[in-house]
């Protein structure tokens, strides 16, 4: 019955995502991109939340999994002929094969999970400051290697002409998959154990919970979701450079998570949608936009200033985020469910 | 060979100065300042503006110190103070946000194009002939600056009442407060000192690389942050040594690897760091057999 009583936790975020996708179908072709971006952002931030939210350990490294997923999905979606001509240095296995849309997304998720396992196996022993810095080092290494190693990718140049299959529908389905996975995880025994280590590491260890193992499970799931989201990302944009999946994206997605509320799935989704919307609006406004008859024309780069300020303000004034890091619950209905569930017995 | 040695010592010295700046604030606030590099960047812009208006060099330098210290104090009042006692993760993310904010402001104000700051151009020349042809004056100045600053700081910490208060606060903030150490004064002093060091670093870095842009000193800061954590932030000297050694390592890797491999310097350094963190999570120089219980 726990599954049903905690259904609202899943339903509200899912409805929000479906609502945004639906809204997107009514907008003009040129505005649709903002909705697609928002859906992809939800997928990435939910991926971040699975680890950071449940473990309470900060990681600056999850965008490495997004990067790996994005480059893998993008590269494998291109036809062998194109790859032979523009990236002759690639390993033959990468150069001579290509995958369809869904397969490329699965590959992205798989690679994200494997990479997270390799990285997490040693790193999950760390916590607090050391974890933050070590995951930052992982991000640095990933960027450095992707930028320079032309046998596995385009290196410093942009990867272009990737099929833009992430429309509103695929974006919505992708975000919903991420949300459902995160919900199932936090309901599971593993999710509970990990949150116990977040609340009190010493007590959790005392009752026999292995912090290392629980963090690793969440890290790998988060890696899979982030890799998957990277696949959605590259199929949305159609083009990618290593800079697209480095510090700026790390900052942006962390801002989304923090603004929404690090500790809840609802927070991750609300934060991603709100901040993504704000970001899209500001970027549009930088090239001039009319709102209620007033012309707004912001200086280039304003969007980063506003986001930085918003994130800092939220952290200082409301560190639990705008949702207070709480999940959506229906108190009365829940009691009613519980009673009707017990009645027959 | 001589050049490699001096370059390594110079980069190590600059990184050691940054490590001290980060370590001082960490000591009293338990906060790692991600935005430290942006303080240096702000100082560098001050120098660039000074040089584009042809201010006398001492005016530029004073402006640089003024801007960096003012910004440090602003950060302390607007951010560090409200966040006192927050979790390590929250503070890390908050200073990360401020780092981005400052960088975005620089981008907005000055654009992404480089500004050239010519200050103390004489220091760019070699110190002598022959073997010394390849060693520039600024290299020596950087090493000397670091040495002087470290000695002065050691004296301040070990020989003055303020230093005693600061060391007490770093060892145990609550107890120190209970024994009459004025928390705000000590923190302000640490923040100002860390600002002074940031200003010194921005002058040295600008002389070495006069092209100022919004990402100025960003890579250096990331490397130093990694270095201080590896060295161990619980003690100032271990953090400093961590910063120094990672500077030396970065410089030696850059000089000695062939150009095909030297692009991977960051990977080598960070990989090394991950290895070290795994073997000694409390820091390389932490005393043996101290296992800290994880704090919630």
List the helices and strands and how they pair.
The complex is a heterodimer of chains A (345) and B (296).
Chain A: H1 2-5, H2 7-26, H3 29-55, H4 62-77, H5 80-86, H6 92-95, H7 101-123, H8 128-148, H9 168-187, H10 189-199, H11 201-206, H12 211-237, H13 247-260, H14 265-286, E1 289-291, E2 294-296, H15 302-317, H16 331-342
Antiparallel strand pairs in A: 1-2
Helix pairs in contact in A: 2-3, 2-9, 2-14, 3-9, 3-12, 3-13, 3-14, 4-7, 4-8, 4-12, 7-12, 9-12, 10-12, 13-14, 13-15, 14-15
Chain B: H1 2-29, H2 36-52, H3 57-80, H4 88-110, E1 115-116, H5 137-159, H6 161-171, H7 173-178, H8 183-208, E2 211-212, H9 218-231, H10 236-256, H11 259-262, H12 265-279
Antiparallel strand pairs in B: 1-2
Helix pairs in contact in B: 1-5, 1-6, 1-8, 1-9, 1-10, 2-3, 2-4, 2-8, 2-9, 3-8, 5-6, 5-8, 6-8, 9-10, 9-12, 10-12
What does it look like?
The complex is a heterodimer of chains A (345) and B (296). The two termini of chain A are 13 Å apart. A two-stranded antiparallel sheet of chain A has the order 1-2. By secondary structure, chain A is mainly α. The longest helix of chain A has 27 residues, at 29-55. In chain A, a hairpin with a 2-residue loop joins strand 1 and strand 2 (294-296). Chain A has one domain (2-243). Chain A is globular, with a radius of gyration of 21 Å. Helix content of chain A is 72%, strand content 2%. Chain A has helices at 2-5, 7-26, 29-55, 62-77, 80-86, 92-95, 101-123, 128-148, 168-187, 189-199, 201-206, 211-237, 247-260, 265-286, 302-317, 331-342; strands at 289-291, 294-296. Chain B has 296 residues and is mostly helical. Chain B has one domain. Chain B is 72% helix and 1% strand. Chain B has a two-stranded antiparallel sheet with strand order 1-2. In chain B, helix 1 packs antiparallel against helix 8 (183-208) and helix 1 (2-29) packs across helix 9. The radius of gyration of chain B is 19 Å and the shape is globular. Chain B starts with a helix and ends in a 17-residue tail after the last helix. Mean pLDDT of chain B is 85; it is low at 292-296. The chains are: A mainly alpha (345), B mainly alpha (296). Chains A and B meet through helix 8, helix 13 and helix 15 of A and helix 4, helix 9 and helix 12 of B.
